[in-house]
Amino acid sequence: MQSKPMNSLNNSVNSPGENCYIAFRGGVSALSPTNPDASVSGMTGKQPIIVVIDDSRASLTMYERSVETLAVTLTTFQSPREGYDHLRGQGADLVFLGNLMRETDGLTLLRKLRDLDHHTTTPVVVMSTKDYDQDRAMAKKLGALQYLIKPVRSQEIREVIEKYTGARRRDA
Amino acid sequence: MSGNYLRFWGVRGSYPAPFASHMKVGGNTPCVELSLDGHVFAFDAGTGIIPFGHALLRERKSGHLNVFLTHYHWDHIAGLPFFVPAFTPGFDIDIYGPADSPAELESHIAQQMKAPYFPVETETWLAKVRYHTPHHEPVQIGPASISSFVLHHPGLTFGYRIEVAGKVILYCPDNEILFVNQRIDAMRGEFDEDEHALLEAMKEEQRGRVTEFMRDADILIHDAQYTPEDYQRKRGWGHSCYIDTVNSAIDANVKHLFLFSYDPNYDDEQVDEMHERARELQQQRQAAMLCHKTREGYIIELDD
Predict the structure, then answer these.
(1) Over the stretch A2-12, which tens digit does the pLDDT of each residue have?
(2) Which of A112, A170, B20, B206 has its CB surrounded by the most CB atoms within 10 Å?
(3) Is residue A114 domain-resident?
């Protein structure tokens, strides 16, 4: 699992990590990615849980920056294996998957995910460097909501999260 | 010829090119034979595996063969329906390829041998055939350790890393390198100023990934399908511009680069021009790497 930027919070008051951290706390004690029930707001009355699995560090940073202003719980994994292990035991309101990863491809991971009873309909967005119809078609077949090609602007990531989870702006 | 060698049976990408203007390079699609201490390997089963099969039968009436498939696009499996050792009792064939399970791999291969596309099915194969999905765990066969990694190409596509006697051979026939970097350059204006540093980090990360898997390879057999001019029109088709391939291999300190998977539209003269330009680039960069043109029948002795 890609560690949350908690430990780096003291480095910069305005770091993306700190902003994320504030969003995680959401005014509730002990709110963490492993404690998804302790969440607030969002369309369902809970703070949406976003899980990202992508072995690109730069992409994960883009996600972290994107959610700075959103009241969501973001959990990122640079290891597909660790990400899958996490999702075996946890639900999510939205999952972003990288496609081309060293260990595996995101569509193989999505197929495995769909085999889990609690992720048969989990909203999934694939974000990839691969701009190929074959991959798009397979993602669609596996129920992915969107297939985005990198690089993707922070604003676009925010819009996707808002669209599929009803996440609110922190300052709204 | 020693017992340890690589031999190219097919070097064309996309589709066979049996044209008179292409015959010095050859028109068959990918198949590379590796022979190590009596162990026989085929990397991909494009139409090049057909003459390879005939050659095997001339040498022996039975035996064991390992076939490593990178993916299931036709140009990489089209030779299997005509691979005579598979129809010959006494042959023992292990087939490796990307799939969720051996059954899925078998299905991928069997589907191209069904009516109305082909008159006989894989059930008519008389060789003993087994299917394996390597999933990145190294496979030890004789003196070789073979592992897979994921390439930038439509669908799940593997490259193979063969380690033998302290040497590294990489087989990457279909791989579009640096696609995202060119996309980033084209889209830069759509991003905010404060996102530009992150875009640069992404580009650097991509360059790092490309050179990471190639790093210090003794032999790299790599996609070099397009000229820069054609790549501009065919960006996103899953293949590399050969200039990107040469530059990346130099950056990764590759010792011998073998240009591979040529566009079937390129005749012998055009392939020669590509090779010449690649060598000029290598000299301009004062690189120690040697850049080679592949052609059918080309043999790399591995004992030297």
Answers:
(1) 333 322 222 22
(2) B206
(3) yes
